[in-house]
Specification:
The protein is an alpha/beta fold and about 210 residues long. It has one domain (about 1-210): P-loop containing nucleotide triphosphate hydrolases (Rossmann fold, 3-Layer(aba) Sandwich). Helices cover about 30% and strands about 30% of the residues. It has helices at about 40-50, 70-75, 90-100, 105-115, 130-140, 160-175, 190, and strands at about 1-10, 15-20, 20-25, 30-35, 55-60, 65, 75, 150-155, 180-185, 195-200, 205-210. The strands form 2 sheets. It has a 6-stranded mixed sheet with strand order 7-8-9-4-10-11. Strands 1, 2, 3, 5 and 6 form a 5-stranded antiparallel sheet that branches. The chain is globular and about 45 Å long.
């Protein structure tokens, strides 16, 4: 589903990420671990098509990142969700769905509303929300469009204990049905629930654990 070939990202003379041939297959629920600044977010933004590699290539579901084919199957929720302050969460979910050719938000996002006990957030504006509430709102809006690959940057940050466990279970179920999840995290419980754990150190992939 995700294919990385001799990927390199540099800023000036500084190499911030260097990844040899690497892949994630359908059914993967993988996490990236490492110190802050190790390259986790850089890798996610490159796979999401929000940045361009200096060299090498990435494909998602057989399409090069940046192409329409890759965009149609990939969604990314950053650690600080980009939300419109003048639209309610429900309005933003519907807006994202319609931008992607859907009349309504996906079943995944609708179910996530119930699972995260976030119904009361639907009519609210993000500017008045706590960090945890904004995190939930970002997850709801980010998954309102169809996707096969879900990229998450520190998805459990700010969530209460019950919501964290619920989200971890939901991600595992999505992968069990053939989707791909790739998260960066410092959350021990999210790591324990993953099928693959990939360590990044100084911009390079290190040890990898496969629990399948």
């Amino acid at each position: 589903m995700i294919r990385v070939k001799r990927l390199k990202k540099t800023y000036g003379r500084t190499t911030v990420l260097q990844v040899p041939d690497w892949r994630l297959e359908p059914g993967s629920n993988a996490v990236l671990i490492g110190q802050n600044g190790a390259g986790k977010t850089t890798l996610l933004t490159l796979i999401a098509g929000l940045a361009r590699p200096t060299s090498g290539s990435i494909s998602v579901d057989g399409s090069l990142v940046g192409s329409r084919g890759a965009r149609e199957v990939t969604t990314f929720v950053p650690d600080q969700p980009a939300l419109f302050d003048d639209l309610t969460v429900q309005e933003q979910m519907l807006y994202v769905a319609k931008l992607n050719g859907q009349d309504e938000p996906t079943d995944f996002s609708v179910e996530l509303v119930e699972r995260l006990d976030a119904t009361e957030l639907l009519g609210r504006f993000p500017q008045a929300m706590s960090k945890g509430q904004r995190q939930k709102a970002g997850l709801l809006v980010g998954t309102a469009r169809p996707f096969k690959v879900l990229l998450l940057d520190e998805p459990t940050t700010g969530l209460d204990a019950t919501s964290r466990i619920t989200l971890i279970e939901t991600l595992a179920e999505f992968a069990d049905h053939g989707g791909v999840v790739l998260s960066s995290t410092h959350d021990r419980e999210l790591v324990e629930g993953a099928t693959e754990v990939i360590e990044i150190e100084a911009g390079e992939l290190g040890s990898q654990r496969d629990d399948d």
